[in-house]
Amino acid sequence: MRMTRYFIPTLREIPSDAQIVSHRLMLRAGMIKQAAAGIYSWMPLGLRVLQKIERIVHEEQIRAGHIPLLMPTLQPAGLWRESGRYDDYGEEMLRITDRHQRDLLYGPTNEELITDIFRGHVRSYRDLPLTLYHIQWKFRDEIRPRYGIMRGREFLMKDGYNFDVDKEAAIHSYNRHMVSYLRTYQRMGLQAIPMRADTGPIGGKYSHEFLVLADTGESEVFFDSAILDLQFEGRDIDYDSRGNCARLVDHWTSHYARTDETHDQDVFEETVPESRRRRSKGIEVGQIFYFSTKYSEPMGASVSNANGELVNVHMGSHGIGVSRLVGAIIEASHDERGIVWPSSVAPFQVGIVSAATGHAETEAVCNALYQELTGLGIETLYDDRTERAGAKFATMELIGLPWRITVGPRGLKTGQVELVRRKSGDSKQYATGEIVAALCYQLEAHN
RNA sequence: CGGGGCGUGGCGCAGCAUGGCAGCGCGGCGGUUUUGGGAACCGCAGGUCGUUGGUUCAAAUCCAAUCGCCCCGACCA
Questions:
Q1: Which pLDDT score, from 0 to 100, does residue A19 have?
Q2: How distant is C1' of B60 from CA of A402, in Å?
Q3: CA-to-C1' span, A94 to B66 (A)
Q4: Which nucleotide is nearest to A18 (CA to C1')?
Q5: CA of A390 to C1' of B31 (A)
Q6: In chain A, fewer beta carbons within 10 Å around the N or the C end?
Q7: CA A34 – C1' B7 distance (Å)?
Q8: CA–C1' nearest nucleotide, residue A418
């Protein structure tokens, strides 16, 4: 993409109402623009990141055997009256009346809709297990939205729902989700810790929240520092194996890790050596639930089991805050100059800066590089504006592309261009004929 | 919803106590000189001072209502 033909409305000054670093940087980098309290437009650069994250979430869900569909944002009130939540959910649910005076609501979550879909089409245990999910905009009329997209009223969430014939199968679904979530965060360069959580208004018996440690997080968390050293053993996970998933979940949940909602100081002190006790702030980026037959019972979602008996299905639900992850990643990865994107979610992999606008050779090299990289399918942002070099460097650092190639008369005298890594600031000179290969090597090495 | 604060060119702000020409910085446009870390100079454009009503010879400024936004708290991916 040529910057002169793109749209990145950056800001030099910090908007006064942005309180936390991710919000400030998203506004300064021209990623979002506020439309109303807690409601944002996603500008081109922000949209690219959002879509990268969305794609990773999809890939990991599909890898775990979960099936995407898409449910509407507007839902009929009737289903919610049936589950009993139309009144329970309270003011946070945005209610709408259409021209025929029918009650609708902008979905804050989708248990009712998915259960309705399920009960209309699934009758037999042979159709189970089944996990359906979608990535769709939600609306929760928060009393006080804040921190940009971190606590918006409108937000993009992946929410999934598993249907199983009995508790054991449902627990496996729960475990499968925990593992797939951990992998999802890992791919975005985030370390998210599963913590035992309250079930809240969703209800149910088991729940874990996934927290990314950050000073600006809104949740207080207590954990055993040993959990920070846990690693995934291999890239391939057999999601169909109950034993395998259970073992991984065990691995990740054997250490003490709880939010303030479930924290028990006595247990904390009994089970964690003092030197490993940590108290910190965290950003919640996902939550999983097993809620047994809480929805299937009132809504009549049942199947025939192998003995021909009608049984209520065991369900669970799971959510990842996709739009919130954009902010969480920035909170976890930035410096004083701007954002430092992990390459898996970066809006572009590399930026080309021509350090001398109007210098014929420089521009010829930039153009050739841009053509070649784009031809190779490498997402490239070419800053071809008639700005001075300093301004272009500042912009590149603000928007945080992992790599920058600088082309200028100084280097071209000896036929060289510069490759700079955003994360470390390390730079190295390469001959113009070698730069593409060098970049490809680095992209591979740091992927 | 309780408490606090703020609405003035695209952005950041001053002006308001004590009513009297609507300003500054950044950004934008044109020009000249520049050109490897957010250039300098000259010129230009851009604002019904959130909205409505009131007081007054005169309102950004005083009064009232209203809308919106932000911060703290209780609630939430």
A1: 83
A2: 47
A3: 23
A4: B70
A5: 23
A6: C
A7: 16
A8: B36
Give the residue from A256, A294, A297 showing the smallest Cα distance to A273: A256
pLDDT for res A117: 94
- Å separating the CA of residue A352 from the C1' of nucleotide B53: 57
Question: Is the per-residue pLDDT at A232 higher than 80?
Answer: no
Domain with CATH 3.40.50.800 in chain A: 348-445
The closest nt to A11, taking CA to C1', is B11
User: Band of the pLDDT at A205, cuts 50, 70, 90?
Assistant: low
B71 C1' to A67 CA distance, Å: 42
d(CA A16, C1' B21) / Å: 31
CB A355 within 8 A of CB A412: no
| Dihedral in degrees, nearest 10, Cα atoms A242, A243, A248, A250 | 110
Residue located via tokens 């297990």: A129
Q: In this model, does residue A417 exceed pLDDT 90?
A: yes
Q: Nearest nucleotide by C1' from A142 CA?
A: B76
Residue A354 pairs in a beta bridge with: A407
What percentage of chain A has pLDDT greater than the value 90? 80
> Is the pLDDT assigned to residue A27 strictly greater than 90?
yes
Half-sphere exposure of A259 (CA within 13 A, CB side): 23
Instruction: Provide mean pLDDT across the span A258-281.
Output: 92
Is A203's pLDDT higher than 70? no
Cα A273 to the chain's mean position, in Å?
A: 33
Across the beta sheet with A427-431, what order do the strands follow? A380-383, A350-354, A403-407, A416-421, A427-431
DSSP A313: P
- The residues of chain A that CATH labels 3.30.930.10 are 7-338
Instruction: Pick the most confident of A3-7, A295-299, A355-359.
Output: A3-7
Nucleotides of B under 7 A from a protein CB: 1-2, 11-13, 25-27, 34-39, 68-77
Identify the CATH homologous superfamily for domain A348-445.
Anticodon-binding domain (3.40.50.800)
Nucleotide nearest to A159 (CA to C1'): B77
Q: Which CATH entry fits the domain spanning A7-338: 2.40.110.10, 3.30.930.10, 1.25.40.10, 3.40.50.720?
A: 3.30.930.10
A312 CA, B9 C1': Å apart: 64
Pairing assessment for the beta strands A67-68 and A74-76 based on DSSP bridges? unpaired
Mean pLDDT of A168-187: 96
| Closest nucleotide to A398 by C1' from CA | B38
Q: What is the mean pLDDT of chain A?
A: 93
Residue A50: phi, psi to the nearest 5?
A: -55, -40
Collapsed DSSP state (helix, strand, coil) of residue A154: strand
